[in-house]
Amino acid sequence: MKIRSIKLREAHKCSNGVGSFCSVLWDKQGEHIVTASSSDSSICIHDAILPANPPKVVRHHRDGVTALALSPNNTCLASGSIDHSVKLYKFPAGEFETNITRFTLPIRALAFNRSGTMLAAAGDDDGIKLINTIDGSIARVLKGHRGSITGIAFDPKSEYLASADSIGTVMIWELQSGKTIHILKGIAPVIGSDFSSMNIVSWSPDGELLAVPGLKNDVVMYDRDTAEKLFSLRGDHVQPICFLSWSPNGKYMATSGLDRQILIWDVDKKQDIDRQKFENRVTCMAWKPIGNALSIIDIMGKYGAWEPAVPSSMKSPTEDIPGLSSKNGHGLLFYDEEEENPSVSGSLSDLGEDSHGESEPFSRKRLHKQHSYPDDWEEDTNEELELFPKVEPRKKAPHGHRDRSDNKRNELKNVPISAGPKMQEAIQPGATPQQPGKRRFLCYSMLGSITTMELDGYSHIEIDFHDTSSGPRVPAMTDYFGFTMASLNENGSVFANPCKGEKNMSTLMYRPFSTWANNSEWSMRFEEEEVRAVALGTGWVAAITSCNFLRIFTEGGLQRHILSLDGPVVTAAGFKDELAVVTHASPPLPSTEQILEFRVFNIRTGTQPRRGRLPLTPGSCLSWFGFSEEGHLSSFDSKGVLRVFTNQYGGSWLPLFSASKLKKPEETYWVVGLNTSKLFCVICKSPDSFPEAIPKPILSLLGLSFPLASSDLGAENLENEFIMNSMHLHRIQSTIEEMEAAGEDTSLVDDEAFNTEAALDRCILRLIASCCNGDKLVRATELVKLLALEKSVKGAIKLVTALKLPNLAERFNAILEERINKETTGSTIPASAELKCDASFNAHAALTKSHVTVESSKRLESQDFPSLNLLAPSGSKKRYLEEPIKDVNVETENAKARKLEMAREFKSAFDMKKAKKLKDEKDKVDEVKDARKLENANEPEDGQDKNGEANKVTAQRPSNPFAKSSNNKQNASLFDSLKKKVKADRHLPL
């Protein structure tokens, strides 16, 4: 094997690490190379003359690109994708033209016919669509394959179409009738569900041979008319062939196999003349139309050119191309201005005298060999023009040679009228596309779902709640209007449908779940406009129409408000009193980025509290929009990025989830809703982008996290937790301010704020530890300034002291002192508060001062009970220490005084118990000493004063206040009761 160094450049990054199917092709002048990958939604147009120049990137698909095709006149590029769409672009500019067709499953193969007026597209669906590229209509659908169709090819004579599928079946179709004339089962390898390699079919340039990968690691050649096996190319491939390509003159063939080899064959001699082995499997190849080069691309998205592909001593692969006119040298015959055009007046039965009728299709073996290729041109052109009736209005009667020639040139351009980037159509959150014969979702939310299925011309609608114990049981209903969108809340449901002709107007219907009156269901009909989106809230129903009207109705059906919006609606969502509407702010940018705007209305107050631009990931569109369970406005785009609106920085959108961070490109996330910490979605496996209604989809809970950059500490989880807690604390503090402004009680929210502050401090302390271990001391100093609680700052000082960082500990001490000075300087407490605080700390002190400073109170508090100061919150629970207190609630002050008094009593009882213990020990020592003295003393002669002397000694001993058992029990009981009280108070832990 000859060793050559073929430099490969990365065109597409492989996100799954194992490789995917990639495509490559040349333009007809050999100036550009086009590449695509099924793991990348972009198409790259490379400069073949100056490969170092950056490629032109075309991004219009939502998912990986699986197929490419270039029209014969080199002006139109077609692409197929996993997102089920086939798109057309101008070439080489790469400007988007149109979505020419859509499938229900991914596309795997594309091919233009010889004139470029027809495009064949196929994939995982069960049919091959033949599309007129001039008007975009579908001329015919060829059905017969049972596996995914992976390869299609028009024969150069425009008579047949060959196709191959994933289970090894090859079919040959007659274009005139649309019938199958040959079915060859099991002649190609079975690829199953591994679409990193494809079964491919390819006609020889003269149209006489059909090449198919064989079962013996070879290429098998079949006859054009009889489908008989003629010969095979078998060489050193040790694994099945996954791609093959004819040279422009048909003399050579390049084959790539699963064994990572490329072989160049001399077809006439049936032997390989050169070969090359690569690091990865080559999935696609294309011969350069001009010159001696072969472009290749492997499964990792790396492409390059093998030049020369055929040894220079041999005939060039572009020399003596069959049927090549003297006026062009691109390997395919095009229409020319001076070329005589065939007559098109014949019928479908006059397509050729050598066909012997449609009843004998198998008797045409080798009959075309007696004609030279240019002689068959008139017949082939007749076939192409007569195949599809929708092209006939563009034909002209043969009134002159020049008119017919001009008409031909217009048809060959086949470039659709440019409409620019297309604006996103309106969507309804939680709805799925219509599928014939299948049940679909009109609405799917955190509350429940609304499904519909068409039966006998009508639709059957069912409403189900996820929690059947709380939601009402709603009977099914028959839909006579053909509703396509719906919305659901606890009180009822709203339905709407677009216009269906002049007689079937757009209808809006509201259906309450429970009501005190009969016939509470109502409906509205719209003339000369149609409903595009609907939403529900507390006591209101909203509908946005094609006239850019926002119509607000009450639950009873009263038309309350009609507002004009600035642009076409994209979607809408409701939550309690708030209605959020997304509209187009302007046409899309040339890069197809949508320019969207959101507006939030408060229906109860008649105000518009928020308005601004809705951010989207470049190249994406809006796929879900709504409110979280807590009422936070949220959006999700087709690139898998979730954003939540916050009032920070004057109103901003925070990215709280990114599907790319999960590194699972084979999964699509269909969003249902979210709460403070979790995203509720249905995970759909590629190529599906939405769930089926039956069986009911399973909700998955994914954690919310910011798309942070890779930290040099390796502490992304801690940093994410820090930002999340900071965001939650900001929201809680905003809520407290709003409640205080409204005069509402904030005690419960204060507790939540304190808990969040404590959790945030714990996270910051862990981050400080990571910074110290990673020698990021400046970052640690920044973090300690963010600690909310004074006890946390002292904990940080202990931490860095234990880590033997005295300089850092000194800085932390300075920060703590500075904080205390700032909090205490200039702050005062009124006389009433001073009396209560002073009485709680020292009941016997004289209250003579009228005002005391917070600094003196803190100093007194730390003297009496040090741990009390460490746990006092610095946020919502310490506001009375940060600012002068003007209006102090008496009941709140009494509670604070009681807590301080309990602390003092606890300390007093603790000191009493300690003193008692010391006194008991001293008494025991004294008793031993007295006993020894009595033993050594001389007894009286009469013995009468023995007991009296002992009593005298005992009487001289000082009295013990804790000696009596009753007193001991009383003191112990007092101590235990105070201990329980203090334990019950979380602000005064032991």
Automatic annotation (TrEMBL):
Pfam entry (one): Mcl1_mid
Q: Does the keyword Cell division apply?
A: no
Q: List where Polar residues composition bias occurs.
A: 953-974
Region ranges (Disordered): 310-435, 911-990
WD repeat positions in this chain?
A: 58-99, 142-183, 234-275
Q: Which residues form the WDHD1 first WD40 domain?
A: 23-304
Where composition is biased (Acidic residues), the residues are 375-386
Major site of localization recorded for this protein: nucleus
Sorted alphabetically, the Gene Ontology cellular component annotations on this record are: nuclear replication fork
Composition bias of kind Basic and acidic residues appears in 353-363, 403-412, 911-936
Could you tell me which SUPFAM superfamilies the record lists for this protein? WD40 repeat-like
Where is the WDHD1/CFT4 second beta-propeller domain positioned along the sequence? 426-708
Domain WDHD1/CFT4 helical bundle, residue spans: 717-820
Q: Which GO BP terms sit in this record?
A: DNA repair; DNA-templated DNA replication; mitotic cell cycle
Question: PROSITE patterns this protein is in?
Answer: WD_REPEATS_1, WD_REPEATS_2, WD_REPEATS_REGION
Q: Which InterPro entries match?
A: WD40/YVTN_repeat-like_dom_sf (IPR015943), WD40_repeat_CS (IPR019775), WD40_repeat_dom_sf (IPR036322), WD40_rpt (IPR001680), WD40_WDHD1_1st (IPR057646), WDHD1/CFT4_beta-prop_2nd (IPR022100), WDHD1/CFT4_hel (IPR048591)
Which GO molecular function entries does the Swiss-Prot or TrEMBL record give? chromatin binding
UniProtKB keywords: Nucleus, Repeat, WD repeat
Q: Where in the cell is it found?
A: Nucleus
Instruction: Give a yes or no for keyword Cytoplasm in this entry.
Output: no
- Mind telling me what this protein is named? WD repeat and HMG-box DNA-binding protein 1
